[in-house]
Amino acid sequence: MYTTESQNEHLEDKHTPSSTTSQILKDSNISEHEETKETVLSQTEETKPQMEKTCSCPPQGKLNKFITNGVTIFMVWCVAWSFFGTEVLPGGNLFGLLMIFYSAIIGGKLLEHIRIPSVPQLPPLIGMLLAGFTVRNIPFLSNYIRINNKWSSALRNCALTIILIQAGLGLDPQALKHLKRVCLRLAIGPCLMEACSTAVISHFIMKFPWEWGFLLGFVVGAVSPAVVVPSMLLLQENGYGIKKGIPTLLMAASSLDDIIAITGFNTCLSIVFSSDTILNNVLASFRDVLIGMLAGAVLGMFVQYFPSGDQTRRPVKRAFFILSMSLTAVLGSQRIGLHAAGGLCTLALTFVAGMNWSTEKIRVQRIIKTTWHIFQPLLFGLVGSEVSVASLKSNAIGICVATVSLALLIRISFTFVLMCFAGFNFKEKIFIALSWMPKATVQAVLGPLALETARISAPHLEPYSKDVMTVAFLAILITAPNGALIIGILGPKVLTRHDPNSISMELTEMELH
């Protein structure tokens, strides 16, 4: 009896592990099943709100954003109509401006969304330019888009003022001090060489008088900071060419290059549309330069110390002072006949004021950049709308393209020669020469200015001014996208890359002559 019970107990003990194991397996299967069930439920619970968002009755996401932007545009038009009445209806000035403004914004956004693998992003200003050109040359739309010359001139002068403000604030005193030789060489030499070569080429190919040739030369001679500066900042962030300061050099020289081109253009403009002698016009230009520089220096010293350090919202107040004083200088100087004084006053004002602002200078630049985002679509949209295909001669585009291309080849070659004595190797000289070709902002401002002046004071000179406008348009269209692509593709291949954190960015260590 004892033996049988012990055996049974032994058998029960023997089967105990297997039963326990099977129970554990069952529990684990149940727990896995429950976990799977919970996971499926959680996923369905997560996707359920997303489905509700996409299919909800008040639309969400992109559809909501699209409707919001559309209603915003419509309400802007409604408010403008409430104030100005027929000016906002088709055929009115405000209607034309709103159409060009929104068309330019759409054109810029479309170009931003066009992405080609391994190809840098094209500048949005090309889309804005083409949008204005398209609006002007669509037969149905062009009948209703009419803008007063005074309105377009005032808006372009405002855009020019903002460009000059950005150029003045972008000048780095330390960079200019340590890179002064090569920076001045790069800013002055290629601009003057392209201006002179364009004058010669246009005189023989386009049959321009010499004064109109030099005026055209200074229009196309300026490089565009709107293309060069963002591209150089991207290279600098990735460490390309920073040991020799190539991005810093090109950014600093681009502002000086614009100053020289604008000053030369104003001088040629006064010669072309004045009945006085050339000597008197040149002396008057020097007078305007002196008055503008002195007035800008005085105003710049004022803005350095007003508002004082104990006041709040100083960047906003300083930006307001700069904008209001600069607009007054540019527009007011034209009213009193000192055409070249306003631009130089703006440059001197912003450069002197920014020398004493330290870190607050960046905040002021951000505010000015915000205003540029408003005027940039208007500027390039208006420039594109000035070019009419119907009014172009059959051979005009070919001649204008030939003029721009030949002058550009001379500019690139001369830039390469100038950089031969600056401590750069062969690949770096090629890169600098090709990077010094994009044109956009200055051409968009100066190109239509001669046309507007001819319409007001000398209608018989309008054919020349239309050719200047066409050359400026084609120069932007050819050089801006190609320049951006060359900088973005060629820079990482030919420039030496260094770690920005391990290299001292002190400009005093640069071995540039």
From TrEMBL:
One of its GO terms (molecular function) is antiporter activity. Residues 7-16, 29-38 have a biased composition (Basic and acidic residues). InterPro entries: Cation/H_exchanger_TM, CPA1_transporter. Its main location: membrane. Residues 1-55 are annotated as: Disordered. The chain crosses the membrane at residues 66-84, 90-110, 154-171, 183-206, 212-235, 247-273, 285-306, 340-358, 396-418, 471-490. It is found in: Cell membrane. One of its GO terms (cellular component) is plasma membrane. Residues 111-481 form the Cation/H+ exchanger transmembrane domain. Residues 17-28 have a biased composition (Polar residues). Keywords: Cell membrane, Membrane, Sodium, Transmembrane, Transmembrane helix. The keyword Transport does not apply. Belongs to the monovalent cation:proton antiporter 1 (CPA1) transporter (TC 2.A.36) family. This is Sodium/hydrogen exchanger 9B1 isoform X1. It comes from Mustela putorius furo (European domestic ferret).
